[in-house]
Amino acid sequence: QLQLVESGGGLVQPGGSLRLSCAASGFTLDWHAIGWFRQAPGKEREGVSCISSSGGSTNYVDSVKGRFTISRDNAKNTVYLQMNSLKPEDTAVYYCAARPLLCGLGKYEYDYWGQGTQVIVSS
After folding, report:
1. How does strand 10-12 pair with strand 117-121?
2. Strand-pair partners of 34
3. Mean pLDDT of the residues in the chain
4. Which of 1, 41, 47, 70 is spaced 20 to 30 Å from 94 by Cα?
């Protein structure tokens, strides 16, 4: 069974950091690009960051550039999203998703989705 599982969410104060993980089971991530998406209450799901299958290409939405870093460890079949300098507007459920090879921030481009992990940024 193909599965993506996110972890690492939680409650953090503004300015704090979290590292999200996206672990795959049932398939190898070697040939898959991974995207991170988020959805806040009442808002559309938006692409936050992505990394190509090789790790050689990454992309970020403007609102997180310079604060978030995506990386992957194919040996562990896991992709990470390091989130620093968190802001209240980063509060959302964060999802990871997989698609073949190439990085993209469009949600309709992805085939497999995890169940999400909640991130709350609040004092």
Report:
1. parallel
2. 51, 98
3. 95
4. 1
Q: What is the tens place of the pLDDT at every residue in 66-91?
A: 999 999 999 999 999 999 999 999 99
Contact in structure between 35 and 110 (CB atoms under 8 Å)? yes
| CA–CA gap between residue 93 and residue 116 (Å, rounded) | 6
Q: Which is nearest to 102 in space by CA: 34, 43, 39?
A: 34
Reading the block at residue 21, the tokens are 């993980």
What does the alpha-carbon distance between residue 85 and residue 49 come to, in Å, rounded to a whole number?
16
Number of neighbouring beta carbons within 10 Å of residue 89: 10
Hey, what amino acid is at 122? S
State in Å, rounded, how far the first CA of the chain is from the last one: 40
Alpha-carbon span 72 to 22, nearest angstrom: 9
Residue 107: both structure tokens together: 């949600």
Alpha helices in 8-82 (DSSP H): none
